[in-house]
Amino acid sequence: MKIPRISPETLLVLEGFIERPSEWRYGYELSRQTGLKSGTLYPILMRLEKCSLLEACWVATEVGVPPRHTYA
Predict the structure, then answer these.
(1) pLDDT band at 1, cuts 50/70/90?
(2) Is 37 within 8 Å of 31 (Cβ atoms)?
(3) Number of alpha carbons in the 13 Å side-chain half-sphere of residue 55
(4) How far is CA 12 from CA 6, 32, 52, 58, in A?
(5) DSSP 22
C-alpha cells in the first residue's frame, strides 16, 4: 500500500480528523472547516480511504434524500 502525498491540503484534512478522532464526519463539514473546495477535498478523502488511513461509509439521513458519505 502506497502512502499518499502529504500536501498542505492533505494535512488540513488530517488535522480535522485529529481534533475529533472518534466522530464520523461529512465532506461538507470538512470543507467548511478546512476551507477546501469539493474538487480538492474529495480526491484527498478518496486517496486517504484507498490507503486505509480513513474509513468511509454511506449513511441514509432521511426518506427521499440520497445517502451521504461519512468519513472517520
Answers:
(1) low
(2) yes
(3) 8
(4) 10, 11, 18, 23
(5) T
- pLDDT tens, residue by residue, 32-48: 999 999 999 999 999 99
H or E segment at 40?
helix 38-50
Using alpha carbons, select from 50, 48, 47, 42 the residue that is nearest to residue 68: 42
pTM: 0.84
Find out whether 33 and 16 touch, Cβ atoms under 8 Å: yes
**Nine cell digits for residue 9:** 491540503
Cβ proximity of 54 and 48 under 8 Å: yes
HSE at residue 53, side-chain half, CA atoms within 13 A, is: 19
- Hey, what amino acid is at 48? L
Distance CA 5, CA 33 (A): 21
Query: Is the CB of residue 52 less than 8 Å from the CB of residue 4?
Result: no
